[in-house]
Write a structure and sequence with these properties.
The chain is mainly alpha-helical. The chain is built from two helices and no strands.
């Protein structure tokens, strides 16, 4: 098995965790700056997750 089969679920889980932390902070009325920071991290982690998935697809086609 390739290491990418382990990295992809970890990347997806990281995106999910950061998303829920940001949403939980917004729902409980926490600091808006913290929610904004979490949402920025979510976008960055989503980019990384998509890049990893695209790399896995590209490597599997070779």
């Amino acid at each position: 098995m390739s290491i990418l089969t382990y990295i992809i679920p970890i990347a997806i889980a990281a995106v999910t965790v950061v998303l829920f932390i940001g949403l939980f902070n917004m729902m409980r009325g926490g600091n808006p700056n913290t929610s904004q920071k979490m949402m920025r991290w979510r976008v960055i982690l989503q980019f990384v997750a998509v890049a990893i998935m695209m790399a896995a697809l590209w490597l599997s086609s070779k």
